[in-house]
Amino acid sequence: MPPLDIDIGVLFSTTGSYGTVAQSMLNGALLAVEEVNRSELGLRITPSIHNPGGDLANYAMHAEALLRGGIRHVVGCYTSSARKEVIPLFEKHDGLLWYPSHYEGFESSNNVIYTGAAPNQHMLPLVEYLLQHHGRRAFCVGSNYIWAWENNRILRESVSSRGGTVLAERYFAVGETDFSQVVEAIIAARPSFVFLTLIGTSAYAFFRAFRVACRAAGIDQAREMPVASCSLSEPELEAIGGDAVDGHLSSSVYFTSIESAENARFLQAYGEAFPEGPTASADAEASYNAVWLLARSIAAAGSDDPRMVKGRLVEQHCHAPQGDVWIDSETFHAFLTPRIGRSNHEARFDLVGEARAPVRPDPYLINNSGRFEAAPFPVLRLVS
Fold first, then answer.
1. Last residue of some domain: 303, 318, 335?
2. Is residue 124 located within the same domain as residue 215?
3. How many independent structural domains does the chain possess?
4. Apex CA 231: angle with CA 342 and CA 341, to 5°?
5. Tens-digit pLDDT profile for residues 71-102
6. How far apart are CA 73 and CA 92, in angstroms?
7. d(CA 12, CA 29)
8. Same domain membership, residue 229 and residue 139
9. Residues 6 or more apart from 214 whose CB is under 8 A from it?
């Protein structure tokens, strides 16, 4: 029997201020496409690749072109602003957006499959770790859009309920690189930690400026005022570079340092397919998982009809590089394994905390209160 031909869209801004991470996401998706086409699933996937260039105004145009062209499934978007921009089009055309990025939660669209981490899988574990190991005084710095606003709200409520305080919140335009004033304010305030929701080139510039200023003030920044993030990944550590790369905390469900046969196989295949990089990231792995889950669901359904695909999707389990991944039938978010990493001089992460099993997604934090009193909050075991 000839393979079933399927066209999918791939929508990532591989140029622009967050192009480094988006390129790793494109790489992850294309690696999965190549593997699916060589597999025994009986599919031949052809990706239609679109690059909005980091310009929010371009996302709707590209999504509209894909959907009007007959494509029913699109793997794409990094920022929440981009996702929000295109969701109405997927609802209008009854397509499915496979969204492979960690995000702030408080959303569940019938036309989105969420393969990245929900807030109970990245925000809450990070807050708990910071309060236990670094203190209760937070200073928040973020890019001026929904990702930063919502994550800072979750952090503020969680920290305040535990007797801590958020000293300040500062927001900057995406792409901003001058942080001299806020760095001075942080050093003057001396928080226990900085919670960073800047993205792309803005984040890289902040890390460098903050480390330089702390060193000039005689402060061991990594030890005394660590920077913590829910989005910092390996290709971004490489972009930060130099003497500012180590000692940062990141909450994620995937790090390249995970020791497993499946991750070793993934990293070898990724490196061979994309020798020029960028390095694999959590979002690259989520993109890779999205394509595989989509492909298996189409194969099981015998069609790319979105309703049939969703019906078979909840039956699929993916032995992913991070561990077992599957989709929750109520929210269509993924079961994922929370982890905490600390960056080192090699631009990689050493694991310092890890959940013992995949955690059910809770995008609205219904089962996980900001007071950390409601089970099943994902308790992390310390990793030596």
1. 335
2. yes
3. 2
4. 15
5. 999 999 999 999 999 999 999 999 999 999 99
6. 13
7. 10
8. yes
9. 187, 220, 221, 224, 225
| CA-closest candidate to residue 365, choices 53, 115, 106 | 106
Q: Which pTM does this prediction carry?
A: 0.95
CB atoms within 10 A of CB 352: 16
Sheet architecture: strand order including 317-320: 317-320, 323-327, 334-335
Q: Which domain holds residue 342?
A: 120-256+338-382
Give me the amino acid identity at 153: R
Looking at residue 329, which CATH number applies to its domain? 3.40.50.2300
Q: Using the predicted structure, report yes or no on whether residue 370 has a pLDDT greater than 50.
A: no
* Residue 29, token pair as written in the block: 């998706």
What is the chain's length? 384
- Which tokens hold the place of 365? 């934090």
Q: Classify strands 137-143 and 193-197 as parallel, antiparallel or unpaired.
A: parallel
> Torsion angle of alpha carbons 132, 133, 136, 141, nearest 10°?
-120
Give the residue from 299, 315, 335 where a domain finishes. 335
Q: Same structural domain for residues 219 and 368? A: yes
